[in-house]
Amino acid sequence: MTTFEEKQPAVSVEKLKWMYEQMVKSRYYEDQMVDVYTEGKVPVFNIGAGTVPGEMHLSTGQEPAAVGICVHLTKEDTVTAPHRPHHHAIAKGVDLKKMTAEIFGKETGLGKGKGGHMHLFDPEVKFSCGGIVAAGIPHAVGAALTSKMKGKDWVAVAFIGEGAANAGAFHESLNLAALWNLPLIVVVEDNSYGISVAKKDSTAIESNDLRAAAYGVAGAYVKDNDPIAMYKAAEEAVARARSGQGPTIIEIETYRFLGHFQGDPELYRDKAEVPGLRQLDPILKLRKRLTESEKVSEAEIEEMEKRAKQEVDEAYQFARDSNYPEPEAALNDVFQS
Amino acid sequence: MAEAIALEMEQDPSVFVLGEDIGKYGGIFGSTQGLIDKFGQERVLDTPISETAFIGAAIGAAAEGMRPIAELMFVDFFGVCMDQIYNHMAKIPYMSGGNVRLPMVLMTAVGGGYNDAAQHSQTLYATFGHMPGMKVVAPSTPYDLKGMMISAIRDDNPVLFMFHKSLQGLGWMEQLDVAVDHVPEESYTVPLDKAKVVREGSDVTIVGIQMMTHYAVEAAEKLSKEDGIEAEVIDLRSVAPIDKKTILSSIKKTRRLVVVDEDYLSYGMTAEVAAIAAEEALYDLEAPVRRIAVPDVPIPYSRPLEDFVIPGPEKIYQQVKKLMDEE
């Protein structure tokens, strides 16, 4: 285990700028989704009604985990994400138009409208996600195994929530990845809740990076939802994986500004909690770092923000303008000839 | 089977095998015999007892273009990893709109008849056949095992490949003549979606699968010899997709249908075949369809109990004869 505060490797300002832009894009994407998801669901909330039906799990506040890792990845590296996947998808470079169209259930979507918000697959950038807790970890193990068998330096990252660390797949996968010395990184996003159950009521150990000892792998803990600390922990984990030195578990203390899903009454947490967390907004923190410590001009920051938002707006417009699939298309894509 | 896998591994470096005891042991039921000596442990990976992790890893590797063959030692163990099999292996290609391919084989041992009791004797054909997204095959002969395994490895879709323990020609099980045969040394393929008429007849169609096909042929020989009844026997071979055409054209010819299964009766393969006949060949039938399968109980341990629930040649003979006598 390493204490990252002890080391001060140079942090690339270009990479920090990239992270900031992705975080803004992700945040704005989710903010727009709050409104779009509400369309057709007022005054009576019906989960199956409106522009975007079904469950909607938003990642607002959790951006540092995604960008801190993905800033070190390329198209050849694999990312698997859970049911709350938008920030990971954006940071991994998933086609934003096709992703949004998929969430809208349109034929131009990543999965032609067959997957939806929890089931986004973009093989172009090796991204996938799924709706079953912890199930993406073994898929990342398989990607890491492929990298090793092909003699590549590709790494595989499995993002999970802290609740998933208590599922059997976590244990099986980490043991297997450690046994085979695979380039796997498991990023545990501790947003304090598994739906409504607080971490302290579900997890017998303080933080899941400590579980690294059980598999003989490296572990790192990132506190305060800090994008820079995440960047550093991830840089070390990715370097470790690329150089054949095996898996890492990184746990990051992060914040879920919204409910488990949109429409969650959130009776399980104090009303003052979220306003308090919003005071600690990681985007504002990184913005401050860029303008104050890195001397990035306000004009440049605003240009980045504008660019990010424009890309999101175009993606939503593309989704709105796209057609729904023909009903009969439901019968396609079971098997491939 | 091991020969089929070896042939494919020789010509395609993306093919590899992983599972429990598939290395030095050669697979508990011999499915991977000799592979580790030929290809080493880099491509023949013994795994921990972690079905979720290694079947999930096979899915992850397949998504990256590899052609993994994972072995689930007994089909009965599906409970510890069904999420990976069904929610992921079978659904990812569909949910991705066909953009993600999972060219993988999940092979697994099925079947009873050797007193291994309720947790190690099931076939569960229908459990997997019911759920879309997987090809589910269950070959009955050494020739088909090899040819269908090669087809399964080359197929771009996930294939659940069921092999029957009693038909593996294992030295430590009852020796069955039908389990041992010469097969061509070279590579050949057998389609994954075609049933096969294994005995021609004009009086009644018997649809069987794996052991039940062999028992149906035995019953048919007795019917011919003792009663002058000529039964046509169809080996289903593919549970999904099911080959309706072969079944329907046989019914057209014989006008009677008996379906025999080593799986449970209710909601099972026999029900599916009977429903196909009722929907598409009702007016060709001259008698009610008969279904013979495991009555709806778990597979019991004790020999007389197990022999009672798993259909055998004598039970098939009696049921067919009864059907013919009713007219």
UniProtKB/TrEMBL annotation, chain B:
Residues 1-170 form the Transketolase-like pyrimidine-binding domain. The keyword Oxidoreductase applies. Pfam families: Transket_pyr, Transketolase_C. Its cofactor is thiamine diphosphate. Keywords: Oxidoreductase, Thiamine pyrophosphate. GO terms for molecular function: oxidoreductase activity. The keyword Oxidoreductase applies. This is Alpha-ketoacid dehydrogenase subunit beta. It comes from Planococcus salinus. The lineage of its organism: Bacteria, Bacillati, Bacillota, Bacilli, Bacillales.
